[in-house]
Amino acid sequence: KQSMTQLTLDPRVKLIYEGRAHKIWLDYARTHQYERNLQVFTISSPVDLQIPIKGKVPTSDQLSGGISLSHERQWLFSGALFYKRLSHIKDFARIDLTNLSGDNIEMLSGKGQAIGTELGFEYRFRSVDLRANYTLSDVKHQFEGINDGRSFSPPYDIRHDVFANIVVQINRSLMFTASWEYKSGVVVTFPVGVAVTKDLFDKENALKMIPVYKDRYNYRLKPTHKLDVTVRWEKQLSKDVLKLDFGIYNVYNQANDSFVYIEPVRKNDYYIRFEPRSKVMLPFMPFLSVTYCLN
User: Fold this and answer.
1) In angstroms, rounded to a whole number, what is the distance separating the alpha carbons of residues 8 and 12?
2) Is the pLDDT of residue 148 over 80?
3) What is the pLDDT of residue 5?
4) Which of 46, 179, 187, 263 is least surrounded by CB atoms within 10 angstroms?
5) Largest CA distance in the chain
6) How much is the pTM?
């Protein structure tokens, strides 16, 4: 068992010019990454594995700038541009979830960049708060040992990201919240074919389907979108506070793909067709939360 200590500097510089109703800023930030996320499923999940990075750690140098305009605390508009240079980024030379020993995990080092823009809007009128955000980004990675050295979009390249939120304070005890979001589909690795094999020693004489992969990160899933709503009732009990939250996740039961796979479909005794399938893990889901705050 080896222990390793790394000391790095992550400087950040921000210049701000602020007027009565506007603000202009320019920002530079450097960050380092010490772990690489290994996804077990197509999407990020709580069971993902964090693999420590050895050698030169990935470095991100980001330059961004933007402007915001406001009016008497009633509305606010902001817009920004950003560029990020990625150095010594890591990806796995191969992925074998059956053997995650340190000797079996090999990482490649590459480079990349990200460029995009962010827009935001906030509006407040009496007991109603409205917020909306939009992010457009384009992320590219490049490794000599992946996809013949061609640049590609990594799994976390979300091209379009839209979020809208409304909060209504009905009275002192009751509040309503609704949130809608839309995201471009994530990039995954999809097989280009399937090899059919047979075990000569298998008594059941069953066929085995082995997926055949060519390029990595070669397929983008469909966009996802959903609507969540929550109603909160809050009661002051002497010094303590009681909160009841009732809500619905994914109100209109949008079938957002969680992961994809290949399934053989037998048409007849002589013809088998391989079709892509998807699974939905988070459908329409009501929930109830009770919180008691002690003061």
Assistant:
1) 13
2) yes
3) 66
4) 46
5) 81
6) 0.82
